[in-house]
């Protein structure tokens, strides 16, 4: 599951209904900016992640700037520089995609793509934390989960993005692994119409902190609510909408985004607003 930016955008676009104008905006924002001759890449959630100086705050901490179709959302808690154990190898190395190189850390295999990004798949959220040498928020709802599909991408210097599909299964069931698509099929439950996925974003350098890390939901999304969780985290709840911009009585996809201890977390899935809030409150 060696996913690069283009693959991730294509995957998200398949799940959206967008106008051509909106698609062009996504493509434009997905092009990485060049800085001192190096490509800066990041992962995609819902539409595009933008690495640039527009959202940077002076000093050690950085405010995350989110927006929905051009509308800036209420500020979350600050991100800050965190330390992880990097994969071995040279992050500046550039090779053709068909000649991907491997870096080994403690016997675990990493791959490095043509843009110098390190990638690794995993199936255990606790084990990847041990390997990276960092504590991340977790919940008992994710325990004993045989269907977790995790991936980490990092440039080995400035940022890292961790994605976990099927992070929380809830009352969904009948999981079957589709090997050719590298994903699980499932049946919806009565509370969880889909499993919950998790994205974790880490800033690893002062340089990245100064540049900022802004991103935007594009398409049929709206800000449903901003609130403070039981742990005191500022949370933005972004919700998918129907074509008319409403939600009707449907249980549509919810995205809960917040920062804790300088790290940003995003939970995504088709559950009620109350259930998503409960999940956020259980992340410790």
Structural write-up:
This protein has helices spanning 5-14, 20-30, 125-132, 206-211, 273-281; strands spanning 34-35, 38-39, 48-50, 61-62, 65-68, 71-72, 79-80, 101-105, 108-112, 118-122, 149-154, 159-168, 173-178, 183-187, 196-203, 214-217, 221-228, 234-240, 253-260, 263-270. By secondary structure, the chain is an alpha+beta fold. The protein has one domain (62-282). The strands form five sheets. A ten-stranded antiparallel sheet has the order 8-9-10-11-12-15-20-19-18-17. A hairpin with a 5-residue loop joins strand 17 (221-228) and strand 18 (234-240). Helix 1 runs antiparallel to helix 2. The longest helix has 11 residues, at 20-30. The protein starts with a helix and ends with a helix. 36% of the residues are buried. This is DUF4367 domain-containing protein.
Descriptive key words:
single chain, 284 residues, alpha+beta, four-stranded mixed beta sheet, 5 helices, disordered N terminus
Concise summary:
This protein has 284 residues and is an alpha+beta fold. Helices cover 15% and strands 36% of the residues. α1 (5-14) runs antiparallel to α2 (20-30).
Strand content: 35-45%
Describe the largest sheet: 10 strands, antiparallel
Rg, rounded, reads 18 Å
Indicate the overall shape: globular
What is the percent of helical residues? 10-25%
- Overall average pLDDT: 78
Structural class: alpha+beta
- Strand elements, count: 20
* Contiguous runs where pLDDT drops below 50 for at least 5 residues: 1-6, 9-61, 89-107
Number of DSSP helical runs? 5
